[in-house]
Amino acid sequence: GAGVSQSPSNKVTEKGKDVELRCDPISGHTALYWYRQSLGQGLEFLIYFQGNSAPDKSGLPSDRFSAERTGGSVSTLTIQRTQQEDSAVYLCASSFRDTPQETQYFGPGTRLLVL
Amino acid sequence: GENVEQHPSTLSVQEGDSAVIKCTYSDSASNYFPWYKQELGKRPQLIIDIRSNVGEKKDQRIAVTLNKTAKHFSLHITETQPEDSAVYFCAATEFWSGAGSYQLTFGKGTKLSVIP
Q: What is the dihedral of CA B83, B85, B86, B92, to 10 degrees?
C-alpha cells in the first residue's frame, strides 16, 4: 500500500513569509508525528497527534509553529513569519497505534530553505 | 528527562569488517529501542528494534544488544557492505514532561561509511 507522503518536497521562501507543510499518513494509522532534521543533526521531535488531538505540543520550538490534523488523517504544519534558522528537513511519521512502541513509518520529508 | 546519546558521530570501516554503534539513555523506565537507517536523501527506515524484556536480537547481519542496568544499547553490523553506508539513528522511549507521556527520543545519528 501507499506509504507516508509529504508535500511539497522542497520549499524555498523568503524570511518573514508563512509556509504550510502537508503530511498524508498511511491509511488507518492513528498516530502522526512531526520531526525536524537540521543539517547533520538528529531528529528533533516537534509534535504528535492521537487522532485529531495533539496532547503534546512541548516540542514546538516557538509560537510561530502550529499544526493541525483533521479527520484523523492529513496533517499540516504551519510556520509563520519564517526565519533562516527554520531551514531544515521536516519529516512526518505515522504509526498504527498511538503508543511509542509502535513502528513509525516516515515520509520523504519537506526540505525548507528560508532565504 | 529526554536524553539519548549516540557514539560515534562518524564511523568508517573496511568492507567485510564489523561496525558497532552505541547509545545511552537516561530514563530507566524506557522500554523500547528502535534503530533507523537513513540513506542519503531518503527517509529514515526501521531496521531493527528491541524491547526491554530481551537482551539481544539478531536479524541476519544486524544485531542489537541491550543492557538495562547500564542503560545502554548497541547496534552491531557484521560483514559490512557498501550498501550499509548511511546515517543510523538510535531511539528510546523517554518521558516528555510537556504532556506527561512517553515519546521516542532520537540520538543525533552516526554516519557510517563502508570503504570497498
A: 100
Q: Are B109 and B9 in contact (CB under 8 A)?
A: yes
8 Å CB contact of B103 and A100: yes
CA–CA distance, A1 with A13 (Å, rounded to integer): 33
Do B108 and A41 count as a contact with CB atoms less than 8 A apart? yes
pLDDT in tens, A56-113: 777 888 999 999 998 889 999 999 999 999 999 999 999 998 777 888 999 999 999 9
Give CA B94 to chain center in angstroms: 15
A63 by Cβ neighbours in 10 Å (0-12 / 13-18 / 19+) ranks as exposed
Q: Are the CB atoms for B19 and B37 separated by under 8 Å?
A: no
- Chain B: give the shortest CA distance to residue A80, in Å: 22
- CA pair distance A48, A67, nearest whole angstrom: 9
H/E stretch holding B87 reads strand B86-96
Which SS3 state, helix, strand or coil, does residue B33 take?
strand
Judge whether B102 is closer than 8 Å to chain A, CB to CB: yes
C-alpha cell at A91: 519529516
Q: Which residues contact B99 (CB under 8 A, 6 or more apart)?
A: A55, A56, A57, A58
pLDDT digits (tens, 9 = 90+) for B55-110: 999 999 999 999 999 999 999 999 999 999 999 999 998 777 665 677 888 999 99
